[in-house]
Amino acid sequence: MDILSIIFIVAGLFFLIVAAIGVIRLPDVFSRSHAVSLTDSLGAFLMLIGIAWHEGLGTNMLKILVVLALLYILNPGITHATVRAALRSGLKPWKKENS
Amino acid sequence: MATRTRPISSEFLFLKAMALFVVWVLLSASFAWIHLGLGFICSFAVAWINSGHSPFVPKFRLWLRILLYLPWLFYKIVQSSLQLTKLILHPALPIAPQLISVETKLRHHAAVVLLGNSITLTPGTITAEVDRNKLIIHAMDKTLAEDITSKQIESKIADIFKDEEPDL
């Protein structure tokens, strides 16, 4: 495995870990879904680029890029649906106490 | 959506497909069933797409502009990802979530979809509700919300759609 794909995958892992920490630390559904969107915007992106680089040119790389494109199109839809459902069911977003 | 005001007749569509098929046979110079069948299907598909009957008309200029918009969006995503990472890892967790409501001047369904998608894709801001041209956005803190209120994304998208027929 060459060094560049290792760098990409480790960087992706870093963002995935940050997202997981965010899901635990943040106070409510709305802010947690921000942390989750960090997963697909940079975490999954860097991971998949690393894997695609490792695979080299070919059909596998193409498939990974298709997965990436689908991820970027579909994930905002899912996040939006979750947040909208939370908002419509009457959940109030967490606010800072002193403000 | 179709740019032609009057769709062509089905006889003419058939003739067009046949003409395309003849060109296919001449160029491929192969009479294997797989090639003839593929050519038949392709010539009908091409004739149909360009006939005004089909609901989708290829808009190459629009797609090219959207493609050119993506690198800028990606730059924005990386920028706010790093900002959000800093917020999450900060020991004091200095977040100030807020709901902001924004009105857009976009007049296309596709443009509003693209705007909402871009906003959600950018970490730190999520489109919570869309109603024609009013968006409710949940933002993680003030600086992340500024990207939305400064209408930077919206003006980029308005640029992409400036030559299209409004449909909203």
Write structural notes for this entry.
The complex is a heterodimer of chains A (99) and B (168). Chain A contains three helices and no strands. Chain A is mainly α and 99 residues long. In chain A, 81% of the residues lie in helices and 0% in strands. The termini of chain A are far apart. Chain A is elongated. Chain A has helices at residues 3-25, 29-55, 59-88. Chain B has two domains: 1-58, no CATH class; 60-160, no CATH class. Chain B is 57% helix and 11% strand. Chain B has six helices and three strands, in the order αααβαββαα. Chain B has helices at 10-28, 33-49, 60-89, 109-121, 142-149, 152-160, and strands at residues 98-103, 125-131, 134-139. In chain B, a hairpin with a 2-residue loop joins β2 (125-131) and β3 (134-139). The model of chain B has no long low-confidence stretch (mean pLDDT 83). Chains A and B meet through α1, α2 and α3 of A and α3, α4 and β2 of B.
The strands making up the biggest β-sheet of chain B line up spatially as 1-3-2
The arrangement of helices and strands of chain B along the chain is HHHEHEEHH
Mean pLDDT of chain B: 83
Tally of DSSP β-strands of chain A: 0
List keywords for this structure.
heterodimer; A: 99 residues; mainly alpha; 3 helices; 0% strand; B: 168 residues; 2 domains; three-stranded antiparallel β-sheet; 3 strands; elongated
SSE blueprint:
The complex is a heterodimer of chains A (99) and B (168).
Chain A: H1 3-25, H2 29-55, H3 59-88
Chain B: H1 10-28, H2 33-49, H3 60-89, E1 98-103, H4 109-121, E2 125-131, E3 134-139, H5 142-149, H6 152-160
Antiparallel strand pairs in B: 1-3, 2-3
